[in-house]
């Protein structure tokens, strides 16, 4: 079976005005994403994430290396038949309503008639914009724009979805909704290639991650492997009495080899706390 | 390789989708309404020259000629301005707003995108010109009948032949097929300047630069024929650099003087169908040439 994404030894240089030497934005980057996988590309600003994605979409031409989508050269228009793309901070046509936007992109992909209308309704429901579907995008919030952007990316039922900072500028609630949508795509077997600054979110949704720094891939692998601290083990107890904890410490000390690094109460995340105290609050 | 789709360039349906969207975009940007109202005001103002009918020096016919001139002049102004400004605005706006990313990330060949944008602008100009032509025809028909009515006592004593000739002369200044042909010539000229603006907007990222340069080219294009004659003339005293400059101007700039057939139509002359077909052919040549070069530039562009 073809890989969903195959980037091999990608090199891309830019020649900024007033600079003699070319600026190497992407340097020998290789990424392979299997169908159905969720892959996260993370890295600081200007590290080459967006350029890599643009090369994969044919928006920039690689200086060397190859980019393929399901086996098709990404510089060929046909390769885009299977791809949905949500750019960072997208500004869609403000004069169109949500449903008109989806119809426009659907028609570009060759959808027509009842199939298109059905797809528009289905996607508006998926991104929870059914009621706002007839409103012009000029009146949409940032989160709503991201969600309609995600819907347009899915209009032709692509097998690969590329998301560039899908939660940029979105509040924690909207961010969580987009995270849930990505997980939904994963369950449907759609391959997702995303880059984000929200590392916790990447950790939650991605099967594998790549860390890119100054244009080079510095680390890549399954998220569980990358995050595991090799020589440590974790034991989380519920309702443990002080006596039991004391016994455990004694056992560890008696072992002679093992060492208790840390004990205490595990902490929730600020995001979970925020959601618990706002949208998931029991009483008004 | 799996699920290879056929997304060849020049797909009429896809171009139509982009053209239709561009048309909607421009209409909702109120450009259409603003210029439509402007045109209506100009055309409607002709009705207020009614008192001029009584002037013996005008004898009605010159008033009709004035309406034709004003109307076609307004149409030319409107179509050229909208052709340049709308085309110069749309492409950089899509790049700036990153909507271009989402469009080109779909199976849309870049040529189809460019042609769709151009076709959308042309559609807007065409529809506007049709509306203005209808208004002009209505006003002219009304005024022609009024002129004939005013002249009725004067021609009552003429022979039938003389009367028919006089009426034919008046009607020739009214709404004629040649006048509709002149409107079509206005559209052809606007199509050429729009495609030129499209070419410039693929090279430049500045809307202001594209707009100003397009107007400069339009201005120079009106003297292109003079430059060509200057190059071809065998007159003494013309230096080689001057001759080459003439050649350069003649080659690079479209000859907009060819579309000035509307001046003759305003004067009441007949525009032959063959001349109109030839003008259409010239316009098509320029539009295809500009679109092709635009595509060559745009195809290699990175975003």
Describe the structure.
The complex is a heterodimer of chains A (284) and B (303). Chain A is of the alpha/beta class. Chain A has two domains: 5-227, P-loop containing nucleotide triphosphate hydrolases (Rossmann fold), CATH 3.40.50.300; 242-277, no CATH class. Chain A has helices spanning 49-56, 98-108, 113-126, 142-153, 172-187, 199-205, 223-227, 242-255, 270-277; strands spanning 5-14, 23-33, 38-42, 64-69, 72-73, 83-86, 160-164, 191-195, 208-213, 216-222. In chain A, the strands form two sheets. A six-stranded mixed β-sheet of chain A has the order 6-7-8-3-9-10, with helices on both faces. Chain A has a four-stranded antiparallel β-sheet with strand order 2-1-4-5, covered by helices on one side. The model of chain A has no long low-confidence stretch (mean pLDDT 88). Chain B has one domain (12-222, 260-299). Chain B has twelve helices and no strands. In chain B, helix 3 (61-96) runs antiparallel to helix 8 (207-221), helix 5 (110-155) packs antiparallel against helix 6 and helix 7 (177-203) packs parallel to helix 12. The model of chain B has no long low-confidence stretch (mean pLDDT 84). The interface between A and B is medium-sized, with 39 and 31 residues.
Key features?
heterodimer, A: 284 residues, alpha/beta, Rossmann fold, 2 domains, six-stranded mixed beta sheet, four-stranded antiparallel beta sheet, 9 helices, 10 strands, B: 303 residues, mainly alpha, 12 helices, 0% strand
Q: Determine the structural class of chain A based on helices, strands and strand pairing.
A: alpha/beta
Gyration radius from CA atoms of chain A, angstroms: 23 Å
Q: Helical content of chain A, roughly? A: 25-40%
Beta-strand content of chain B: under 5%
Largest sheet of chain A: 6 strands, mixed
Quaternary structure classification: heterodimer
The overall pLDDT of chain A, averaged over residues, is 88
N-end to C-end Cα span of chain A? 52 Å
Number of helices of chain B: 12
Unreliable spans of chain B:
none
Mean pLDDT of chain B: 84
| Strand segment count of chain A | 10
Count of strand segments of chain B:
0
> Helix and strand succession of chain A?
EEEHEEEHHHEHEHEEHHH
Tertiary shape of chain B: globular
Helix and strand string of chain B, N-terminal first? HHHHHHHHHHHH
Name the helicity range of chain B.
Answer: over 70%
Question: What is the tally of helical segments of chain A?
Answer: 9
Q: Which structural class best describes the helix and strand composition of chain B?
A: mainly alpha
């Amino acid at each position: 079976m073809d890989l969903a994404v195959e980037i091999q030894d990608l090199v891309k240089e830019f020649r900024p005005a007033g600079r003699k030497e070319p600026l190497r934005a992407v340097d020998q980057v290789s990424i392979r994403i299997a169908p159905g996988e969720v892959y996260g590309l993370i890295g600081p600003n200007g590290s080459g994430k967006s350029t890599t994605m643009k090369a994969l979409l044919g928006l920039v031409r690689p200086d060397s290396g190859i980019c393929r989508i399901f086996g098709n050269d990404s510089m060929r228009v046909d390769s885009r038949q299977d791809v949905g793309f949500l750019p960072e901070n997208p500004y869609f046509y403000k004069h169109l309503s949500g449903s008109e936007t989806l119809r426009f992109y659907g028609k570009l992909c060759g959808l027509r008639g009842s199939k298109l209308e059905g797809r528009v309704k289905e996607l508006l429901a998926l991104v929870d914009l059914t009621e706002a579907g007839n409103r012009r995008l000029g009146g949409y919030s940032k989160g709503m724009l991201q969600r309609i952007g995600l819907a347009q990316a899915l209009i032709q039922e692509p097998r690969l979805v590329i998301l560039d900072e899908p939660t940029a500028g979105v509040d924690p609630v909207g961010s969580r909704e987009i995270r849930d949508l990505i997980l939904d795509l994963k369950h449907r077997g759609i391959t997702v290639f995303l880059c984000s600054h929200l590392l916790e979110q990447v950790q939650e949704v991605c099967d594998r991650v790549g860390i890119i720094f100054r244009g080079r891939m510095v680390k890549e692998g399954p998220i569980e492997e990358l995050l595991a601290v090799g020589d440590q083990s974790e034991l989380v107890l519920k309702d443990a009495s002080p006596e039991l904890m004391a016994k455990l410490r004694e056992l560890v000390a008696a072992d002679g080899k093992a060492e208790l690094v840390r004990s205490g109460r595990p902490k929730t995340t600020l995001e979970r706390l925020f959601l618990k105290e706002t949208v998931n609050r029991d009483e008004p | 390789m799996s699920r290879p789709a056929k997304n060849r360039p020049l797909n009429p349906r896809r171009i139509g989708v982009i053209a239709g969207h561009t048309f909607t975009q421009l209409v909702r940007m109120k450009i259409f309404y603003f210029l439509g109202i402007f045109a209506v005001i100009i055309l409607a103002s002709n009705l207020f020259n009614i008192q001029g009918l009584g002037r013996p020096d005008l004898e009605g016919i010159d008033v009709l000629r004035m309406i034709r001139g004003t109307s076609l002049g307004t149409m030319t102004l409107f179509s050229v301005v909208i052709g340049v400004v709308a085309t110069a605005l749309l492409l950089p706006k899509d790049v700036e707003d990153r909507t271009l990313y989402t469009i080109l990330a779909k199976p849309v060949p870049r040529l189809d995108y460019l042609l769709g944008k151009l076709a959308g602008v042309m559609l807007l100009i065409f529809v506007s010109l049709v509306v203005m032509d209808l208004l002009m025809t209505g006003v002219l028909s009304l005024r022609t009948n009024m002129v004939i009515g005013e002249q009725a006592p004067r021609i009552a004593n003429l022979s039938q032949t003389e009367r028919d000739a006089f009426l034919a002369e008046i009607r020739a200044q009214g709404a004629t097929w040649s006048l509709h042909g002149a409107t079509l010539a206005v559209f052809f000229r606007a199509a050429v300047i729009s495609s030129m603006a499209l070419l410039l907007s693929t090279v430049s990222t500045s809307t202001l630069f594209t707009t100003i340069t397009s107007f400069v080219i339009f201005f120079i294009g009106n003297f292109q024929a003079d430059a060509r004659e200057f190059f071809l003339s065998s007159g003494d005293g013309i230096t080689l650099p001057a001759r080459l400059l003439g050649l350069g101007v003649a080659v690079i700039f479209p000859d907009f003087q060819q579309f000035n057939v509307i001046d003759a139509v305003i004067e009441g002359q007949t525009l032959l169908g063959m001349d109109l077909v030839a003008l259409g052919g010239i316009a098509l040549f320029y539009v295809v040439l500009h679109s092709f070069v635009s595509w060559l530039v745009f195809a290699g562009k990175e975003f």
